[in-house]
Specification:
Arc Repressor Mutant, subunit A, 19 helices, Endonuclease III, domain 1, Endonuclease Iii, domain 2, 4-stranded mixed sheet, alpha/beta
Length: about 400
């Protein structure tokens, strides 16, 4: 197998990877410009030619892309080309690969684990030269005070923070709001059978879209869910993820999500400097104040509240409307009978599925959707699929 390199796209941006017959020689995160990314990734393999990745390398590419998309992916089984890597850095990289996703260590802890307790600075220097970004997860190594420390990839500490945020979505220490591995607790097969029988037009959408595959996102507090939702409002996924990571990066140890006290203690200038609008800053402050006063329901309480009760409670928070809570009910709590009738994608999906030129109003869709009860969440999921047909 000849040496080669290739670009590949991820939620973080356009990355690059290089390989030899011995394994992966380098992984480069986005540098802002393709020319810079290419130059960095080919530095270790100057004679590599741009080419189609072999099967093993393609598996690594797929795993990295899925990791950045929020899926749990282990990268420690991929073969690396250690040619030219000195013995001490190799020991550092191998120790870093033992840190599981969703966990972090410090430079000092890593040095102790290697039997070199006085070499924390050398560990940091080695990680700063890591040629195997993500595959050797140097982003999981923090400073002694819990702060991010340096990061040599494009975007610096902001990129490091984003990686930690991606991985925190499936961190094993977080409390799950659902049973099993991201699956809804209700009987999805029964729900699909009900919708098929209740609505022939929706049955055709189901045939085309395939099995119901809604996966729920983990979270450990109602505050955390709503804080992330506020940041993400009215932004593209990539822009929102960048700003969310910057906000988390303002606070030590906040890679699992910032806390109410973080927001209450931060100045407006600090929050606005991370990319938050004035409206979102005010909304986060109101949310944080309510959380600090224990006005938000706990997870246990949220599980017991009816949908409309939870909507009424949470829409008291500034900047949180019905749609935001409906998304929480669907994608966080896995409630089976939620129809976000004001959602553009659901309305568009209905027009596509039922051959309508005009989108229904929210009121019209809510009335039409009564036939799908008690599984309107599943109907909404399929209408989102139909909107993409």
């Amino acid at each position: 197998m000849k040496a080669g390199w290739a670009f590949f796209d991820t939620a973080l941006g356009r990355c690059a990877i290089a390989w030899t017959e011995r394994g992966i020689a380098a992984v480069q995160l986005p540098e802002g410009r393709d020319t810079a990314t290419r130059a960095r990734v080919t530095l270790r393999v100057p004679d590599a030619a741009e080419s189609v990745p072999p099967r093993g390398v393609q598996r690594a590419i797929d795993d990295i892309a899925r990791l950045f998309a929020g899926e749990a992916r282990a990268l420690d089984s991929h073969e690396l080309d250690w040619e030219g890597v000195a013995p001490f850095p190799r020991r550092v990289y191998e120790a870093a690969r033992a840190i599981p996703a969703g966990h972090t260590s410090t430079y000092g802890e890593l040095a102790k684990r290697m039997g070199e307790p006085r070499k924390a600075r050398a560990v940091g220097q080695a990680l700063g030269r890591n040629p195997f970004a993500v595959v050797v997860p140097c982003h999981r190594v923090l400073g002694a005070d819990g702060r991010l420390g340096g990061f040599s990839a494009g975007g610096g500490a902001g990129t490091k923070q984003r990686l930690l945020v991606f991985e925190s979505a499936y961190a094993p220490r977080q409390e799950a709001l659902f049973e099993g591995d991201g699956r809804v607790a209700f009987d999805a097969a029964r729900a699909v059978r009900h919708l098929r029988a209740a609505d022939p037009a929706l049955a055709r959408v189901i045939d085309r879209a395939g099995p119901f595959a809604l996966e729920l996102k983990r979270a450990n507090t109602i505050f955390g869910m709503l804080a992330e939702a506020i940041v993400y409002q009215q932004l593209t996924g990539r822009a929102a993820a960048t700003i969310y990571a910057r906000v988390c990066g303002l606070f030590a140890g906040a890679h699992r999500g910032f806390q109410p006290e973080h927001i209450l203690r931060a100045s407006d200038a600090k929050l606005r400097g991370a990319g938050l609008s004035r409206a979102k800053t005010l909304a986060l402050r109101d949310l944080a104040r309510r959380a600090a006063k224990h006005e938000l329901p706990t997870l246990a309480e949220a599980r017991e509240l009816e949908d409309e009760q939870l909507i009424e409670r949470l829409t008291q928070v500034r900047g949180v409307g019905r749609w935001t809570v409906e998304m929480l009910l669907i994608f966080r709590l896995g409630r089976p009978d939620v129809l976000p009738a004001d959602d553009y994608g659901v309305r568009k999906g209905y027009a596509v599925a039922f051959g309508k030129r005009k989108l229904p109003t929210a009121r019209e869709l809510a009335k039409l959707g009564t036939r799908w009860a008690p599984y309107r969440t599943v109907a909404a999921w399929y209408l989102w699929r139909a909107a993409a047909f």
